[in-house]
């Protein structure tokens, strides 16, 4: 089912239709798992660790999009669209989490582009905890909604 919001993103070019494969989904999960592992490396700054954890979350959101037949286009705002599409696809129970992840996008942007030292180690720990839990949620959703891809 394509919601009104998803349809608007398709019409604007923010999303395109996409046919995924079990291999692509597995590859995306491998990237997510690598990022979650790398987030735990404490020899780098909290800013970098946060950016890596955020990348894992974005990868999980990309799994949801791909499994549902979409891909965010590589244009300004594609991270926001990818995260904001989560409740449109997975349902209202992930809306608060998608809002949290979107706030992490803003913090990641500040640390990547504006200034160093804006992310605390507790910010990293919280995002990693949420990312790990979200990975489990995405996997359960995938098994239920798209079992051929799980």
What does this 3D model show about the protein?
With 150 residues, the protein is mainly alpha-helical. It has a single domain, classed as Up-down Bundle (Four Helix Bundle (Hemerythrin (Met), subunit A)), CATH 1.20.120.330. 71% of the residues lie in helices and 4% in strands. It contains seven helices and two strands; from the N terminus they run H-E-H-H-E-H-H-H-H. It has a two-stranded antiparallel sheet with strand order 1-2. Helix 4 packs antiparallel against helix 6 (95-114). It is globular, with a radius of gyration of 15 Å. The mean pLDDT is 96.
N-end to C-end Cα span: 20 Å
Number of strands: 2
Widest beta sheet: strand line-up: 1-2
CATH topology: Four Helix Bundle (Hemerythrin (Met), subunit A)
Q: Profile the largest sheet.
A: 2 strands, antiparallel
The named CATH superfamily: Nucleotidyltransferases  domain 2
User: What is the domain tally?
Assistant: 1
Reading the helices and strands in chain order gives HEHHEHHHH
Query: Which architecture name does CATH use?
Result: Up-down Bundle
Q: Which class in CATH terms?
A: Mainly Alpha
Give the CA-based shape: globular
Give Rg in angstroms.
Answer: 15 Å
Strand content: under 5%
List segments where confidence is low: pLDDT < 50 over at least 5 consecutive residues.
Answer: none
Helical content, roughly?
A: over 70%
Would you tell me the structural class of the helices and strands? mainly alpha
* Average pLDDT metric: 96
**Tally of helical runs:** 7
